[in-house]
Specification:
This protein is of the alpha/beta class and about 425 residues long. It is built from eight helices and seven strands. Among the domains are: about 60 residues; about 60 residues; about 160 residues. The strands form two sheets. Strands 3-4-5-6-7 form a five-stranded mixed β-sheet. Helix 3 packs antiparallel against helix 4. The relative contact order is 0.04.
């Protein structure tokens, strides 16, 4: 509400709105008028400055025209001088270019000749190189063919070996053939380690059981049995086990199989008064042997308690070497009496030989003495013969017939 005198007007009253609009237009007109006046003053001031600049520009244009006339004269002089210099330079350049052209022609000719000779030499070398490369390539291809043939043979061997490996797997998958495999390996080890008369294969004991191998050791300990066992199924199950349950089941199968083998060997092949107080169980696999000692030590202890010692191919060879030393010592003891008897006879022969050598020495000494005496007698006889040769035998006169004759006597032995 606005109070003017005694009249009151509202802001939204049309009269009030019209009055306000008129006042606004009047104020805008006044502002525009003020701005126009100011701009008119500024334009006047700018026109005066522009006039002064135009006067300065006219003077500069006059100065520039004078300078342009001077520049035109200078440029004409420079142009004439440049034309003369250019003419002389062109003549000099033509002469130099002619000389350079002659030099370039000579050099090009020389270079062409050198290039021709170099090309010919290079062509010759390339021909020789190509010939050598052809020979080397031929040799390389020949060698490559030979190597390919060798590779083909090796591939055939690998294929055959793969078949053999598959055959070995088939053999090991069967219990009977697997047992034969262990017996063959045991046979090979025993025959290499012991003399041929110290063992017997497939020997039948008094209880009717047949042992894979019986070693004839002296008492004690007596003959000892080696039986081949191969618990492959339990070991393969243990190797393929992935979960804890499978590992537990495979370990149970391994313990059951090995304990059964230990019990069978202990009951069949340890006979009091016939065999040693123990036996050997031969495992033809180092992996199974290592698995038992690494993860199943209780089975090894069970074998010790049952007097069944578990051996692998390596430990079996070491055990057999020890047995060979025992056999050698036993045979030395068996032959001790014969050796003593032979030594006594040898002593008698040596004593008799000493007596005969002494007699021979005495005979040689006597013969040497006789030969010395014979030499002495021969020397004396020689000296006497030499003296007789020096005597003069003259003819005797008749009066000398009764003369004394010196008798010849037998010389005394000296």
């Amino acid at each position: 509400m606005i109070q003017i005198g005694e009249q009151s007007y509202a802001w939204n009253d049309p009269v009030m709105l019209a009055a306000l609009a008129g006042i606004s237009v009047l104020l805008l007109f006044i502002v525009l008028l003020i701005l126009s006046v100011r701009r008119t003053g500024q334009s006047a001031r700018m026109a005066q400055g522009l006039a002064r600049q135009l006067d300065g520009l006219g003077q500069a244009v006059q100065v520039l025209g004078a300078g342009q006339d001077q520049l035109t004269g200078g440029l004409r002089s420079v142009s004439d001088a440049q034309a003369n210099a250019q003419t002389q330079t062109i003549q000099t350049m033509e002469a130099r270019l002619t000389a350079v052209q002659h030099q370039m022609n000579d050099r090009l000719h020389d270079n062409a000749m050198k290039s021709a000779r170099a090309l010919a030499e290079m062509q010759g070398r390339m021909t020789e190189t190509l010939q050598g490369s052809t020979v080397k390539t031929t040799q390389s291809l020949t060698q490559l063919q030979e190597r390919l043939a060798t590779i083909d043979k090796a591939q055939e061997n690998i294929t055959r070996l793969s078949g053999d490996v598959l055959s070995l797997q088939d053999i090991l998958s069967n219990k009977q053939t697997r047992g034969a495999f262990g017996e063959i390996q045991l046979n090979d080890i025993v025959t290499k380690a012991l003399p041929s008369d110290s063992y017997a294969f497939q020997h039948t004991l008094s209880n009717g059981k047949r042992a894979d191998c019986l070693i004839h050791l002296p008492n004690p300990p007596g003959p000892i049995v080696i039986d081949s066992k191969f618990p492959l199924e339990a070991y393969e199950m243990l190797r393929r086990a992935e979960t804890p349950a499978q590992v537990t089941e495979a370990a149970r199968a391994m313990r059951s199989s090995v304990k059964a083998h230990i019990k069978a060997i202990s009951e069949k092949y340890i006979l009091e008064g016939e065999t040693a107080d123990g036996a050997l169980m031969f495992l033809p696999s180092e992996a199974v042997y290592a698995e038992l000692h690494a993860n199943f030590p209780e089975l090894v202890r069970d074998g010790f308690e049952a007097r069944v010692w578990i051996v692998s191919p390596t430990t079996c060879m070491a055990t057999l070497n020890t047995m060979r030393a025992i056999l050698k010592d036993a045979r030395m003891r068996e032959q001790a009496g014969a050796i003593r008897k032979e030594l006594a006879l040898l002593y008698s022969d040596v004593d008799r030989l000493g007596t005969r050598v002494e007699n021979l020495d005495r005979h040689f000494h006597q013969a040497s003495k006789d030969i010395s005496e014979i030499k002495i007698s021969a020397e004396k006889a020689g000296r006497r013969a030499k003296r007789l040769d020096n005597f003069d035998f003259e003819e005797l006169a008749p009066d000398d017939v009764g003369a004394e004759v010196v008798p010849l006597t037998t010389p005394k032995s000296e």
